[in-house]
Specification:
By secondary structure, the chain is an alpha/beta fold. The protein has a single domain, classed as 3-Layer(aba) Sandwich (Rossmann fold). Helix content is 55%, strand content 14%. The chain has eight helices and five strands; from the N terminus they run E-H-E-H-H-H-E-H-E-H-H-E-H. It is globular and about 45 Å long.
Amino acid sequence: MNLVLIGYRGTGKSTVGKILAAELDLEYVCLDDEIAALAGMTIPEIVKTFSWERFRDLEEQVVKVCTGRDGQVLDTGGGVITRLSNIPQLKESGIVFLLTATVEDIVRRIGSNQGRPSLTGTKSFTDEVVEVLTEREPLYREAAHFTMNTSQASPRQIARQVAEQFRKSCQ
C-alpha cells in the first residue's frame, strides 16, 4: 500500500511527504525527481527542449513504474492528474491525499521559485495559480480519497493527521 500526495505546487507535498515517510517508515519518492532522472535533465530543461506534453508522457511512465511498487510515500507533481490515465493508477496503488492551500499561501510559498516553468505563459503569477487551480480542482477531487488543507496547520501537524488517516485506512 502506498500513500499518495497530490495537489497544486506549493501546497506542501514535498515537506509533508518527507515527514510522513520518516514517521511511517516508508520510502519517500518524488515523482518529479524520478522524471528528471529518467530524462537526464531538469524539468525546466525538459519543457524548454521538448514541451509540457513530453513532460506529461515521461510523468505517465514514472507513475506506472512507481505505482507498481508498495511501501512508498509518492510525492506527485501538481499536474499529474491532468493525464487522466494516472488517476486510476494512483488510486489503485494506495490512499490518495489531496493537499490544498489558499491562493495567497500558494503564491507566498512559491512566488519566488524559478525552478518550474510557467504553466500558461501569459498571465500574472497569481492569475495563473487561480486559473490552473480552477481547471484542476475537479480532477483533484476525483483522484483523492481524503483532503487536507495545509493553510490551517503546520507541515508536522498535517503529516500527523495524514498518517492517522492512512493507518485507519490500512486496517
